[in-house]
Structure formats: structure tokens, C-alpha cells
Backbone:
């Protein structure tokens, strides 16, 4: 539409430009004649040529013509009237050749005229619509300069009527601008029409062009101009919607130009009785009332104008405008936010209460009354209707935001937050009236308006709520977060975020991003936001919204003050106080830990323990508040995870968390909900409602985790000073526990039976003794043992409270072990002594300790397992062979014996050649056919492993290789159940349960935990002879089909330990007790295992998954056997056996080669044998003659072809060709020449049909011929081959053999 208007204007200007000089001259010469001409001639000459006659008819026709032209201009909507109607073209001065010198003629046509005015170039108006601001500004400056010049000369003319009569242009005689030059009147009209154009930046440019001449040319009558604006841009019934909108916007821009010109103020200052300001206010408010989109910009125009006015005209003129009274009167009914904005700003200007504000502002006015519930309800419609300008935020809200958070209050809060860093200052700081008023205002605003009107309404109003909060965030103090992030707001936020396709999802996401950015550098704000989100979501904000907002907030505390503040708020949230105090108490622990309801008697607590498990152990059944408390408990140990604190500061935070968890999980008060400890100088609080057993257990578990983490990261203690170490969290906890136990009104949260209570006390006494011994040991190795035992004792003590009745026996045994292991006098605590009374041999202390650790492992939590591993690590070098075998027995235990176990026991156990790895043929067939219980596909990680070897050991170790029943037969029943209590429990469960699935899973879990201990043992004892025992048992468990059947995780765990801790260890067993016959036997079994074929049972069609699992297991066992062979050979090499002794090893390989060449079932990989020969050349050299013999007489033809590479590899190391070894190599070659020639004759006599194999034969023979030729043994070879052999070689090898004969020596 704009382009269409531009083309219309340009076409008009072109018509004007193309008028020739001749036509203009002709008009000048005929002016006198035209004055006496008839009406038609005058009309044809156009409005640019004035008629000299005084005829009334001509005036009427001229007025009619002007009205028609005005109507046409409004319909065409050009760029501000730059072109005149074609029927009335403006005469253009053609005295210049430049196309841009369009101007209005300044002189009358009569050459005798003595007065002329400067020209007015029309290109100024075109440039006012440019999109370039600099171009618009230059055009406006040029236009006002030219108009000033024209008006100045016009005022100096003696005969103004002659100019007026000669060139009226578009100006009318009754427009009130009689003192203005025609050019100025024309420019004003065109500028007024221009502000109604939507082309490019016409409104901005023409408004600027209108502002400047009005401000500097005093001849312009402001009242007349105001009337001219209304008349020129009036709306008629024939106009369409877009035309109406442009006219109204044009009037708005014109009024704005008039307000900014300053003429209204000048006129009032010159005549204070002038009504121009009132008229302007009426016109502007009347315009605003026409359309809603005009209200806010009209208010801004009026406010800009009022800012420049003194108070007096505002009161006497602006506020007295009738339209303003009417507007304010209807504001609350129709919901007019702009009227409220205007009222607030006008009241701020005059600073007095005026009757006109009575419906919008409270009387007397104050921010407290403005934000009262009644007044917010009265102006609610005005506030709610501000949503019409979305996505932009209405200007009203920046004003209300300043009222809610005045600058004085924000500055005082900033100063207070800096100066009140200490607890004492915070406690003594008194709230001032400004703070109290601001708090009440924000509370009322959020409660009555945000929650009552916006959050419960439409999407647009919810959007407005987010916008308001974003507007308040930059200045919002942390203390106001609890009011702003209210329950309803957080619920609304969660509802939106939980639905990704919601219209407001992006709005809510953006709000969270800004909120996270707002709290980035302020721990106080971060704590306030975190608490608000979790408190109002019942601890489920992240779960419901599917975000990590709370998790990220809680992970960003890095300073001591931030961690302490977060900890304080968490504790108070757990206590569920209605108001979280900002300041701390005068106690060291200001955030009183909370525990169970102290009003409940011991009997009530016991009854609750007898109740249903759902009521006790399920956090979810206790209600949403329990979910929130569980989040508090889980968040406590994580406070220190990301904090960058000094050791002293970290210890202080640890102690606060430790005390809180101890009180919550371990104790309750029998009287009231508060208990004061005079010894600790601290006060402890309990929640008013009873804490479920499940939450108490969570506290104990987190307490265990906290102590376990402190054990991992704590610094070495400065022992040896004989003083209690404050750095030790264990000592601090035990002292704290003992102190609370001594308070009469405090007791444990649950009653203990006699055995548990005795064990509890024994553990406390044991820890006390261990602590003293640790301090006396200084920095010795025993100190680490004492320290590890103390951690285990504390973990076991907490386990007794978690699982009563399950750990009392283990606790007593651990106490006995600690007493006997480190007692230096007979007066220490003793065991029950039943063994001594019966004259029985007392078991070794380390055996009992291992048994105790094993009995603790199955049911233990992760922190306790960590303590068990630390204790085992300290004592693993002292573990006896008996204790180690007990651990390995757990790994080999199986709830499902192999289905052919009985037959194997009767047939195989008496066999001298029993497989050391317990790989039975029938068992493997079962596994290969997928008949084991589990069919999960097994990964073939074993192929990447090297150096995996099962080992044969001396008679003592071999005795352990028999069936598990034999191991158990060596012990009496009491020892069996004492050492394998958990295994006995599992077998009992299996008998009681259908299928035994639970027992099987428990056994797998137990095995995994024992494997962790064995891994520690192997790491700490890499060269110990017992490593061989560990390896042999692990290898047996690995190849046992039931292992893969029970758990793939268990299988991979065993494989990982064998790989990393045995095969890749820098040290390996070198003990003299490992004899060569055992190693030879183990080597033979490994080679047989490597050659064992993959079998499948006929008549069975297993699934692809089972078949794949069986094949993967076969490959794993094959790789295990191959790598085991390499490791056994490495051990043999380290022993430095004599050649006679090594003959047994060679016999093993000879038997393997016999099986390889004589049977097709052998699955030995030739690449494996090549690797053996490459690593151990002495084996290859000793077996080379036997290898040639078996290759030449092979019963299986393809075996001969496979062995060629093996022979070539051996020959390379056996017969090196260089100057130093020439003679030795020649002698060696001569000894094998006979069998080599026999092999060559066999190959050429039966050349393969396939080209690849023929090429392989030619390559092998070529290599032999080259070696023979280099050693000058060609003649000897030809002689051995004989005529028949040479003929066969010539026929099969051709030139390759002929070239050899040419080098005959």
C-alpha cells in the first residue's frame, strides 16, 4: 500500500517537473488577460495561479476545489501530501536545470511585482520519510531554516495581501494562521498529513518536522494549530479500518510534536489564564479514549508534557480537564491500567491528594494503603487488564515495582547484607519502618493480587505474573523470596514445566534461567530459592518438572558461609518451623537438630515398631512432608561435595551435619520437644510430629555415609601427642553419642534386646580402647590398623540400630578380635573362653577376623563395605592360608550342582589325569547346548586379554582343587557354620523357597563382595605364593558353567580380577614350593583345554541367543587356556630348570603336536603355537626336528599346510644367517636337511589344487631354497632330494627350483 502511494506522489511530481519553460512564460505574459477571463479559464489555470478578480463566484469555486483536493488526498493517503491533485498542480520554478530543485514560486506572475519570497524545495518532505535517521534530521533542520527565512521575509512585506492573493496554494483564509506565510501554512498542513502516513519512517520524520517550526516560529497560533490537527485528521464514516487507524495515530504523533515543541508552556507563561493546556489535555485524553492501543502512548505524551510543567498548571489546567475527570471516573469499572499509571505519576508530580484521584488512589495516599487488600481489590481490574499489551510489559508495572521495592529500602538491604555478616550483628539488627512497610506491601501484593487474580486466571495473566517477577528480580532482597515464590506460584510453575506442550512452557523455562542467573553470585538468594521451591513442592520439584534445578542449586555452594546457611535452613525445614529465623542462636549449633517426637513414650515407640512394615519403612506412606524431610536428609552429606573449604571449615560443617543426623536418627526426647545439653552448651529440637522409622533409618544411613567419606578424605592425624584429636570425626561422634546417652530425658529411638544392647556397649568400649591405642602408636603402621578398625566398629554400631538382632554375634566377635589382636596385657577384654574350657584349639585371630568380615559383608551397606575393605587392606598381609581358602570357597559355592556331578565324582576324581580346572566334558556339552539356567549373550572381552594362566601348585594347593565337598569334609560342623554362616543361611533359604531365585541372587551379591576383598589381597600381595591359590580357584569358578548361568556380572568381575590383578601384575609367584611336575601337569591341562573342540549335542536345536552365549563362553575358555600357557611358561623360565628337567615340558608339547597332526578334532590354533615358539625359542629349537617329522608324515593333509608357517618361524630363529653364526647355522641346517627334503618332496608330490595354498607351498620352498643357498648347502640338498625329488620339484616349482640348481656348490 505504501508503494502504491509513493508511485502516486512521484507521478504527480513528474507532471510538475515536466512543465516547460514556455508554458510558464506563457502563463506570466497572459496574467493580465487571465484576470479578466471567464470562470472556466481561471479553473483551467489551477490553484497555483491566483485570480486577480474579486468575483464571489470564483472564491466559492476555489473553496470547492480545495475541499475536493483535500478529500482526494485523504483517500489516496500519500506520504503527507507531497503531491497535489493532478487537476491542481503546483507551479514549479523552472529557472534551474536541477531536477531536485522543486519549489514553490515565491513571486507573483506579474513582472512588475516588487516583493518576492524564497522558494520552498519539496524534496525536504520526501527526505522526512527516510529510514535513515540522519537524513530525517537533516531534512527537518533544512525545512525549519527555510520556513524561518520565508516567514521573516513575509513579515517584512508591506503588502501581504498581494502575496496571499497571488499564491494561496492549499491554505485557507479561515484556518487561523493568518500571520503565517502561505508556504508555512502549506508546510504545516503537509506535515500534519504526513504524520498519518505509515510509509517507512514518515511518522517519525514528519513529527520532527512539525515540532521544530512550531517551537521556533512564534507566528504559529497554537490554538489554531490544535484545531487544524483535529480538522485535517478527522475520521469520517466513509473511512476503512486501516485509514481510521492511521488518522488516529497521526493525531497522536501530531499532539506529541506539539507537546515537545514547548509552545504550550510558553503560551501559559505569557498568559496564565489561557486555556490551551486544558484544551490540549482534553484533546489528548479524548483521543486516548477512542482506541485501546492509543491509551498508553497518549499517557506517555501527556506525562512527558507534564514533566516539563510547573506544579501550578498541572493542578489548575491538566487536572481540571473534563475528559480527564471522565477517564478517571470510569477507570476502575472498565479496567484502565493507563489511567492508573497517569494517576500515579500525576500524584507523584503534585504530591497532594486531589479529588480526581479518589477512585484510583487511596486518600490519604501511602504505599501501605495502596497495597492493602481492599485497595488492591478496587483497582484489580486496572491491573489485570494490563495484559492486553503482551508480550510487552505495561509501563505501569515498572512504577508499581518501584513502589514495592523503593530505592531507599533496596540500598538499606544491600548495606545490611554487607555489614551483618556476623551472627551477632544479624541478631541485634532491628527492622526499620521502611523495611516493615516493604515487607507488608510485597506480601499483600503477592497474596491478594498475584495469587488471587493472576495465577488462578488465564494463560495471559499467568504470563503477566512471570513478567512481573522478572521485573522485580534485579532489586528483590533474599528475604522477600519466600513471599514471591509462594506456594501457589511454585505449584503453577510445576504444572507448566511438567507439560512440555504447554503454551507457557517456554515462559516458565525462561523464568527459571533468569532465576538461576539471579542467584549465581549470592548464596543467600540461592538458599532462599532452593528452600522455597522444595518447601512448596514437598521436596519433589525436580521430579515433577523433570529438571535438575534444585540439584544444581544445591551443588553450587562453595563458601563456608554458603554451606552453613544452607545447612541451617535444611535443619529448620526438617523441624518444620513456621518461620525460618534469619539469625542464629547464641549456641555453637544454632540450628538445633531435630529428632523424633519427644512426647511419645517408649511404649508408644515400641508399639510403632511392632506395627506394619508399610507404616514404618515406607517414606511415601507417611505423606508428602516425609518426602520433603527425606530430601533434607539426603542433601546434608552432599553439602561438602562441591564446597571449596579449608580443612578447619570443612570439619566444622561436618560436625554440624553429624550432630543433626545423630540426633534425628538415634535419639528421642521423653519430655517435650526441646532438650538442652549443659555439657555441650547446645539446645536440640524435635519435630512436633513423630518422625517415621524409615526417616530415622535414612538419617543413620546418611550418617554412615558421612563417616565413610571422612575416612576417605581425612588428612593423616598428628598422633603421638597423647591428646584427643579434634580432627577425627569418629572420636567426635562417639563422644557426642555418649554425651546424649547420659542425658536422662533422651533415649535411643528404639529399644534393643539384650544381645544387641550388650554388643552396643562392647563396641563403644572397643572403640574407646582402639582410640587410645591409636594415639599411642603415633604414625606407625599399627595406627592405620587401629584407625580402620575404629571406623568399622562405628559402622557396625550403627548397623545394629538399623537391623536389630542381625549383627550382635558379629559385633561380639569383632570386639574379641580387636582385643586379642592388640592386647598387650592379660587384663584386656577377653572372649567367652568356651574353647579353652573344652581344651580345644583356639582358632587364629586372623581367621576369626576374616570370618567376621565375611559374615558382615552380605547385609552391609556401602559405607560399611568400604570400612570392611579398609580393614582387610590393613590386615591382608597377615591373612592365613586357611582364611584365604574360606574366602575362595565362597566364590566356588553353587546352589545348583552340575547335573552330572555324581557320575563325575565316581569316575573322574580317581583319575590321575583329572583336569585341574575342573572342566568336565559333560558340563561343557550342557553349556554349549545352552541348557544352563541363563541364556544372556556373553561378550568376548577375553580375546583382548593376554597373560591369563591357571596355575598348578604344590600338594597343599592341589588338595583344594578337588570338589567342594572335599573341602567341607576337612572341617567340623561348628567350624563350617561359624565360617560360612551366610552360606548356610542361603542354603536354608533355598530349601524354603520355590526355585531358589532369591537365594541365588543373594549368593551372587555375596560373591561379588568377597571378590572385592580378593582384589585387595592380590593388589597388596602381588608376589605372594598364595596368589597362585587365588588364581586357581578363580579360574575354576570362571570356567564353571554355573557361574555364567548365575550372573554375567559375576563372570565379568572374576575375569577382570584375573586380568588386572594377576596376569598384568608386574610380579608373579616365584616361590620354590612350586615344583616342575605340577607346572608341567598344569601346562598339559591348559594345552588340552586350548585344543578342546566346540561340541553340540545332536537332536537339540537351541535358540540363537543360547548358541551365541555358548560359543562366546567357548572362546573365552580357549583364550584363558592360551594365555595361561604363556604365563606358566614365564614362571618356568624364571625357575632356571636344567635341560633334563625341561624335557618334561618338551614332552607335553610333543604330545600336543601329535594330537594336532593326527586328528581333526583338535582345535589348537596354529597362531597360538607360533606365538609360543616366538616367545620361547628354546622350545621351538628343541622341537624343530620333531615338528619336521610330524609335518612330513601328517595323517591330516591340511595340517601339513597349516604347519608351514610354524616351521618358517622356527627356522628364522634356529638358523640365523650372518657372518658370526654362519658355521653354526650351517651345521644345524645339515642336521635337519634330510627331514626338510622329505617334507619338500611330500609337498611337491601332492600340490594343492587351490591357488592360495599352491602359492603358500611355493613361498615355503622358496624360503628353504634361499636359506640353503645362503649357507652353501645346495649340493647337499639336491643330493638328499635325489633324482625323483628333483624331477618333482622342477615340475611343481619350475624356475624357483631351476634357479637353485644354478647356485649349486
Residues:
Amino acid at each position: 500500500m505504501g508503494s502504491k502511494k509513493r508511485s502516486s506522489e512521484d507521478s504527480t511530481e513528474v507532471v510538475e517537473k515536466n512543465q516547460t519553460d514556455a508554458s510558464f512564460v506563457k502563463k506570466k505574459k497572459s496574467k493580465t488577460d487571465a484576470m479578466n477571463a471567464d470562470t472556466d479559464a481561471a479553473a483551467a489555470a489551477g490553484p497555483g495561479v491566483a485570480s486577480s478578480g474579486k468575483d464571489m463566484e470564483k472564491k466559492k469555486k476555489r473553496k470547492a476545489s480545495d475541499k475536493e483536493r483535500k478529500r482526494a488526498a485523504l483517500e489516496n493517503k500519500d506520504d503527507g501530501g507531497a503531491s497535489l491533485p493532478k487537476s491542481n498542480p503546483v507551479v514549479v520554478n523552472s529557472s534551474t536545470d536541477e531536477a531536485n530543485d522543486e519549489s514553490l514560486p515565491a513571486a507573483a506572475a506579474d513582472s512588475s511585482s516588487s516583493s518576492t519570497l524564497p522558494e520552498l524545495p519539496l524534496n525536504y518532505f520526501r527526505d522526512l520519510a527516510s529510514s535513515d535517521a540522519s537524513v530525517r534530521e537533516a531534512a527537518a533542520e533544512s525545512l525549519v531554516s527555510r520556513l524561518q527565512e520565508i516567514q521573516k521575509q513575509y513579515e517584512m512585506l508591506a503588502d501581504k495581501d498581494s502575496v496571499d492573493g497571488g499564491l494561496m496554494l492549499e491554505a485557507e483564509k479561515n484556518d487561523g494562521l493568518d500571520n503565517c506565510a502561505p508556504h508555512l501554512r502549506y508546510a504545516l498542513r503537509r506535515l500534519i498529513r504526513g504524520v498519518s502516513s505509515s510509509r517507512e519512517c514518515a511518522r517519525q520524520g514528519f513529527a520532527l518536522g512539525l515540532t521544530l517550526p512550531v517551537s521556533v516560529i512564534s507566528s504559529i497560533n497554537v490554538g489554531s494549530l490544535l484545531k487544524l490537527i483535529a480538522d485535517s485528521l478527522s475520521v469520517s464514516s466513509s473511512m476503512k479500518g486501516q485509514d481510521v487507524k492511521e488518522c488516529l495515530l497521526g493525531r497522536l504523533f501530531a499532539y506529541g510534536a506539539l507537546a515537545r515543541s514547548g509552545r504550550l508552556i510558553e503560551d501559559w507563561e505569557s498568559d496564565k489564564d489561557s486555556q490551551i493546556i486544558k484544551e490540549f489535555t482534553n484533546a489528548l485524553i479524548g483521543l486516548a479514549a477512542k482506541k485501546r492501543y492509543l491509551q498508553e502512548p497518549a499517557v506517555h505524551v501527556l506525562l512527558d508534557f507534564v514533566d516539563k510543567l510547573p506544579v501550578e498548571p498541572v493542578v489548575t489546567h491538566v487536572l481540571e480537564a473534563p475528559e480527564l475527570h471522565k477517564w478517571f471516573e470510569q477507570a476502575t469499572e472498565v479496567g484502565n491500567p493507563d489511567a492508573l499509571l497517569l494517576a500515579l505519576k500525576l500524584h507523584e508530580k503534585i504530591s497532594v491528594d486531589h479529588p480526581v484521584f479518589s477512585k484510583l488512589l487511596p486518600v490519604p495516599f501511602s504505599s501501605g494503603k495502596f497495597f492493602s487488600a481492599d485497595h488492591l481489590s478496587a483497582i484489580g481490574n486496572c491491573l489485570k487488564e494490563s495484559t492486553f499489551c503482551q508480550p510487552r510489559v505495561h509501563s505501569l508495572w515498572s512504577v508499581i515495582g518501584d513502589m514495592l521495592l523503593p530505592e531507599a529500602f533496596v540500598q538499606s538491604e544491600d548495606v545490611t547484607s554487607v555489614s551483618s555478616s556476623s551472627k551477632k550483628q544479624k541478631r541485634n539488627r532491628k527492622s526499620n519502618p521502611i523495611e516493615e512497610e516493604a515487607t507488608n506491601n510485597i506480601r499483600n501484593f503477592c497474596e491478594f493480587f498475584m495469587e488471587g487474580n493472576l495465577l488462578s486466571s488465564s494463560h495471559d495473566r499467568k504470563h503477566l505474573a512471570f513478567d512481573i517477577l522478572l521485573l522485580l528480580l534485579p532489586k528483590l532482597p533474599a528475604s522477600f523470596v519466600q513471599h514471591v515464590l509462594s506456594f501457589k506460584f511454585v505449584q503453577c510453575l510445576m504444572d507448566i514445566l511438567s507439560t512440555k506442550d504447554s503454551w507457557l512452557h517456554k515462559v516458565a523455562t525462561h523464568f527459571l534461567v533468569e532465576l538461576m542467573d539471579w542467584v549465581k553470585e549470592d548464596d543467600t538468594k540461592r538458599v532462599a530459592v532452593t528452600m522455597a521451591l522444595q518447601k512448596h513442592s514437598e521436596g519433589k520439584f525436580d521430579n515433577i518438572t523433570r529438571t535438575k534445578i534444585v540439584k544444581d542449586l544445591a551443588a553450587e555452594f562453595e563458601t563456608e558461609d554458603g554451606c552453613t546457611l544452607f545447612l541451617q535452613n535444611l535443619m529448620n525445614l526438617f523441624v518444620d518451623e513456621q518461620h525460618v529465623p534469619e539469625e542464629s542462636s547464641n549456641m555453637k549449633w544454632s540450628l538445633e537438630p531435630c529428632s523424633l517426637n519427644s512426647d511419645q513414650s517408649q511404649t508408644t515407640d515400641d508399639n510403632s515398631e511392632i506395627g506394619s512394615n508399610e507404616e514404618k519403612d515406607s517414606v511415601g506412606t507417611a505423606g508428602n512432608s516425609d518426602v520433603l524431610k527425606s530430601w533434607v536428609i539426603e542433601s546434608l552429606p552432599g553439602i561438602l561435595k562441591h564446597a571449596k573449604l579449608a580443612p578447619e571449615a570443612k570439619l566444622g560443617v561436618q560436625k554440624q551435619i553429624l550432630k543433626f543426623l545423630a540426633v534425628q536418627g538415634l535419639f528421642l526426647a521423653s519430655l517435650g520437644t526441646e532438650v538442652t545439653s549443659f555439657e555441650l552448651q547446645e539446645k536440640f529440637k524435635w519435630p512436633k510430629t513423630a518422625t517415621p522409622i524409615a526417616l530415622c533409618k535414612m538419617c543413620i544411613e546418611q550418617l554412615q555415609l558421612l563417616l565413610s567419606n571422612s575416612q576417605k578424605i581425612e588428612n593423616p592425624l598428628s598422633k603421638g601427642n597423647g591428646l584427643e584429636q579434634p580432627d577425627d570425626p569418629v572420636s567426635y561422634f562417639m563422644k557426642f553419642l555418649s554425651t546424649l546417652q547420659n542425658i536422662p530425658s533422651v533415649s535411643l529411638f528404639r529399644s534393643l534386646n539384650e544381645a544387641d544392647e550388650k554388643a552396643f556397649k562392647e563396641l563403644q568400649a572397643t572403640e574407646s580402647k582402639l582410640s587410645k591405642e591409636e594415639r599411642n602408636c603415633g604414625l606407625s603402621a599399627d595406627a592405620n590398623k587401629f584407625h580402620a578398625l575404629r571406623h568399622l566398629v562405628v559402622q557396625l554400631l550403627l548397623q545394629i540400630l538399623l537391623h536389630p538382632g542381625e549383627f550382635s554375634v558379629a559385633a561380639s566377635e569383632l570386639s574379641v578380635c580387636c582385643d586379642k589382636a592388640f592386647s598387650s596385657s592379660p587384663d584386656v577384654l577377653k572372649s567367652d573362653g568356651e574353647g579353652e574350657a573344652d581344651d580345644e584349639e583356639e582358632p587364629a585371630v586372623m581367621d576369626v577376623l576374616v570370618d567376621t568380615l565375611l559374615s558382615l559383608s552380605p547385609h552391609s551397606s556401602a559405607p560399611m563395605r568400604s570400612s570392611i575393605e579398609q580393614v582387610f587392606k590393613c590386615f591382608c598381609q597377615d591373612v592365613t592360608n586357611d582364611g584365604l581358602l574360606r574366602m575362595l570357597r565362597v566364590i566356588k559355592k553353587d546352589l545348583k550342582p552340575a547335573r552330572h556331578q555324581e557320575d563325575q565324582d565316581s569316575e573322574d576324581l580317581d583319575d590321575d589325569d583329572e583336569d585341574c580346572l575342573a572342566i568336565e566334558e559333560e558340563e561343557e556339552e550342557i553349556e554349549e547346548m545352552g541348557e544352563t539356567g541363563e541364556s544372556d549373550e556373553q561378550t568376548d572381552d577375553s580375546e583382548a586379554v593376554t597373560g591369563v594362566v591357571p596355575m598348578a601348585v604344590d600338594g597343599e594347593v592341589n588338595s583344594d582343587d578337588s570338589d567342594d565337598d572335599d573341602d567341607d569334609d576337612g572341617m567340623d560342623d561348628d567350624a563350617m557354620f561359624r565360617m560360612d554362616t551366610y552360606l548356610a543361611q542361603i542354603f536354608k533359604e533355598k530349601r524354603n523357597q520355590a526355585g531358589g531365585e532369591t537365594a541365588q541372587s543373594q549368593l551372587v551379591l555375596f560373591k561379588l563382595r568377597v571378590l572385592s576383598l580378593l582384589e585387595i589381597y592380590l593388589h597388596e600381595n602381588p608376589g605372594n605364593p598364595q596368589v597362585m591359590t587365588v588364581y586357581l580357584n578363580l579360574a575354576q569358578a570362571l570356567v564353571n558353567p554355573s557361574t555364567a548361568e548365575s550372573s554375567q556380572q559375576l563372570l565379568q568381575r572374576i575375569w577382570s580380577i584375573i586380568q588386572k590383578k594377576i596376569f598384568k601384575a608386574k610380579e608373579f609367584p616365584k616361590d620354590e614350593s612350586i615344583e616342575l611336575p605340577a607346572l608341567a601337569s598344569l601346562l598339559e591341562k591348559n594345552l588340552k583345554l586350548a585344543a578342546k573342540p566346540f561340541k553340540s549335542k545332536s537332536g537339540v536345536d537351541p535358540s540363537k541367543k543360547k548358541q551365541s552365549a555358548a560359543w562366546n563362553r567357548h572362546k573365552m575358555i580357549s583364550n584363558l587356556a592360551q594365555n595361561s600357557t604363556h604365563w606358566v611358561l614365564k614362571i618356568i623360565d624364571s625357575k632356571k630348570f636344567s635341560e633334563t628337567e625341561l624335557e618334561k615340558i618338551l614332552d607335553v608339547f610333543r604330545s600336543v603336536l601329535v594330537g594336532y597332526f593326527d586328528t581333526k578334532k583338535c582345535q589348537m590354533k596354529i597362531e597360538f603355537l607360533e606365538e609360543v615358539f616366538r616367545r620361547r625359542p628354546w622350545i621351538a629349537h628343541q622341537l624343530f626336528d620333531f615338528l619336521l617329522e610330524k609335518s612330513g608324515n601328517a595323517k591330516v593333509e591340511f595340517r601339513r599346510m597349516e604347519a608351514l608357517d610354524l616351521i618358517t618361524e622356527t627356522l628364522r630363529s634356529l638358523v640365523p644367517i650372518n657372518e658370526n653364526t654362519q658355521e653354526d647355522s650351517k651345521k644345524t641346517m645339515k642336521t635337519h636337511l634330510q627331514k626338510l627334503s622329505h617334507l619338500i618332496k611330500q609337498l611337491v608330490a601332492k600340490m594343492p589344487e587351490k591357488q592360495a595354498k599352491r602359492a603358500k607351498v611355493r613361498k615355503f620352498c622358496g624360503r628353504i631354497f634361499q636359506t640353503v643357498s645362503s649357507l652353501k648347502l645346495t649340493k647337499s640338498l639336491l643330493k638328499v632330494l635325489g633324482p625323483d625329488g628333483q624331477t618333482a620339484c622342477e615340475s611343481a616349482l619350475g624356475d624357483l627350483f631351476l634357479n637353485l640348481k644354478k647356485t649349486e656348490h
